[in-house]
C-alpha cells in the first residue's frame, strides 16, 4: 500500500477549523430555537403521544448514556488496575463520558416536559420505581464525572494565571481511584437499571425479560470504547500524528471486539429463547405486528446483528484488518450505529406494538405510529452539535491527549 502524505498549510487548517466551528454553531443555534419552541408550546410540537411517550430524544438519551458510561467504565478500569499502557487514552475516555452524560441530560430535559421538576425524585422518594433509582444514578454519576473532568480542565492554559486552582485539581486527581471505583459501580448500576426499566414491565411482553439489564451493560461497554477510540483516531488523522501507539490501538480495538462478541452471544441466545425455540403468545403477537407494519425485523437483523455486530467483530478480531485504519474506523462507527439502532428498536418496539390490555382498553392490537417532527430533529441535531463543539474545543485547548508520540511507532 502506498501512503501519500500531502502537506496542508497552517492557514488552510485554521480556515477549515473555523468553518467546522461555524457549521456546528449554526446547528446549535437552530437546536436552541427548537428547544425554546418546545418550552413555549410544550410537547404538542413533537410526534410524541400518550401511546408513544418516548421517541427520538429518549433514543438519543440512551445512546449518549451508553457511549458515555461505557467510555468512563474503560477509564475507571485503567485507573483502578493501573494499566499504564492504556493511560494515554484514559483522559479521552473521561471526556467522552462527560460529554455523553451532559448530552443525555439535555435530551432528557427536552423529553420530560417539565424539566423544572427534575428535583422531585430527590425529595419525593418512590423506592418501587426503577426510574427513581435511575434519576439518582444520573445525578450521582454526573457529579463523579465532573470531579473526574475538573483536573483536566484546570490543566488548560487558561488557568495558568490561577496556580492555586491547579493545586486543588491535583488533589482531586490523586483521588481518581476512589472516584473511579464509585463511578464504575454507578455506571454498571445505571446501565442495568435502564435495561430493567423495560425488562420489569410484564404487561409489555416484548420487553419483559431478565436479559435486558446485562445486554445494556455489554452494549454500552462496546459502544463507549468504540466512540473513544474512533474519536482518538480521527483526531490523530486531523492533526497528522499518531496520538497513541499502534500496539495500543490494536489492543483497544481487540478489546472492543471481544466486548461486542459477548454482547452478540447473549443477544442471539435471547432471541433464540424468546422467538425461536419457544415464544409466549404476547411476544409472538407483538413481533408479528412489528414485522407487518414496521421495519423492526429488518433493522434488528441487518443493522443490529449483521452491520452493527458480526461485521465489526470480524474486522476488530482479525489482525490484518485491525492494521488498516479505514477498516478499524468503519467497524467502530458500525458498532456505535448498532447500539443507537438497538436503543431505538428496544424503545419503540414495546410502544408501537401495544399490550394486550391497558387501563380502559381491551383487546387493542392495532399498532401505533410514531414519526419525529422537524422540531424534534433540529433539537437532536443541536445536542449533537453541542457535543462536537465541546469535543473540538477540548482537544484544541485542553490536555486531553498526550502531546508527544512516545511509543507511537
Tell me what the structure shows.
With 409 residues, this protein is mainly alpha-helical. It has one domain: Up-down Bundle (Formate dehydrogenase/DMSO reductase fold), CATH 1.20.1630.10. The chain is built from 14 helices and two strands. The chain has helices at 10-41, 56-81, 90-111, 120-123, 130-154, 163-174, 176-199, 212-239, 246-276, 281-293, 296-316, 319-322, 325-352, 374-397; strands at residues 357-358, 361-362. The chain has a two-stranded antiparallel sheet. Helix 5 packs across helix 6 (163-174) and helix 9 runs antiparallel to helix 11. The two termini are 18 Å apart. The model is unreliable at 1-6 (pLDDT under 50).
How many structural domains? 1
Order of SSEs: HHHHHHHHHHHHHEEH
What can be said about the biggest beta sheet?
2 strands, antiparallel
Strand content: under 5%
The fourth-level CATH homologous superfamily is Formate dehydrogenase/DMSO reductase domain
Query: Helicity, in percent?
Result: over 70%
Amino acid at each position: 500500500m502506498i501512503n501519500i502524505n500531502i502537506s496542508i498549510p497552517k492557514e488552510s487548517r485554521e480556515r477549515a477549523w473555523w468553518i467546522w466551528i461555524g457549521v456546528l454553531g449554526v446547528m446549535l443555534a437552530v437546536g436552541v430555537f427548537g428547544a425554546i419552541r418546545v418550552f413555549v408550546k410544550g410537547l404538542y410540537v413533537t410526534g410524541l403521544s400518550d401511546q408513544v411517550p418516548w421517541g427520538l430524544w429518549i433514543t438519543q438519551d440512551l445512546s449518549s448514556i451508553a457511549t458515555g458510561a461505557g467510555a468512563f467504565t474503560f477509564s475507571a478500569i485503567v485507573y483502578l488496575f493501573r494499566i499504564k499502557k492504556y493511560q494515554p487514552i484514559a483522559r479521552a475516555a473521561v471526556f467522552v463520558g462527560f460529554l455523553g452524560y451532559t448530552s443525555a441530560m439535555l435530551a432528557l430535559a427536552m423529553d420530560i416536559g417539565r424539566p423544572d421538576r427534575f428535583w422531585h425524585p430527590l425529595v419525593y422518594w418512590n423506592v418501587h420505581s426503577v426510574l427513581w433509582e435511575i434519576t439518582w444514578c444520573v445525578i450521582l454519576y454526573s457529579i463523579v464525572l465532573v470531579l473526574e473532568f475538573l483536573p483536566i480542565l484546570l490543566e488548560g492554559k487558561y488557568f495558568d494565571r490561577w496556580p492555586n486552582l491547579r493545586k486543588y485539581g491535583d488533589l482531586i486527581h490523586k483521588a481518581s481511584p476512589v472516584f473511579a471505583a464509585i463511578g464504575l459501580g454507578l455506571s454498571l448500576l445505571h446501565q442495568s437499571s435502564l435495561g430493567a426499566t423495560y425488562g420489569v414491565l410484564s404487561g409489555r411482553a416484548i420487553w419483559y425479560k431478565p436479559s435486558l439489564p446485562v445486554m445494556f451493560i455489554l452494549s454500552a461497554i462496546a459502544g463507549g470504547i468504540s466512540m473513544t477510540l474512533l474519536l482518538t483516531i480521527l483526531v490523530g488523522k486531523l492533526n497528522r500524528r499518531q496520538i497513541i501507539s499502534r500496539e495500543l490501538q490494536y489492543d483497544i480495538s481487540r478489546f472492543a471486539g471481544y466486548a461486542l462478541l459477548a454482547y452478540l452471544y447473549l443477544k442471539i441466545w435471547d432471541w433464540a429463547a424468546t422467538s425461536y425455540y419457544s415464544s409466549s403468545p404476547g411476544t409472538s403477537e407483538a413481533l408479528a405486528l412489528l414485522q407487518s407494519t414496521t421495519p423492526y425485523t429488518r433493522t434488528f437483523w441487518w443493522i443490529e446483528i449483521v452491520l452493527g455486530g458480526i461485521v465489526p467483530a470480524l474486522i476488530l478480531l482479525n489482525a490484518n484488518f485491525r492494521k488498516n485504519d479505514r477498516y478499524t474506523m468503519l467497524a467502530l462507527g458500525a458498532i456505535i450505529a448498532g447500539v443507537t439502532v438497538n436503543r431505538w428498536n428496544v424503545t419503540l418496539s414495546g410502544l408501537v406494538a401495544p399490550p394486550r390490555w391497558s387501563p380502559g382498553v381491551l383487546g387493542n392490537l392495532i399498532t401505533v405510529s410514531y414519526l419525529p417532527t422537524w422540531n424534534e430533529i433540529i433539537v437532536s441535531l443541536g445536542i449533537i452539535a453541542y457535543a462536537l463543539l465541546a469535543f473540538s474545543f477540548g482537544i484544541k485547548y485542553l490536555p486531553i491527549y498526550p502531546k508527544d508520540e512516545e511509543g507511537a511507532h
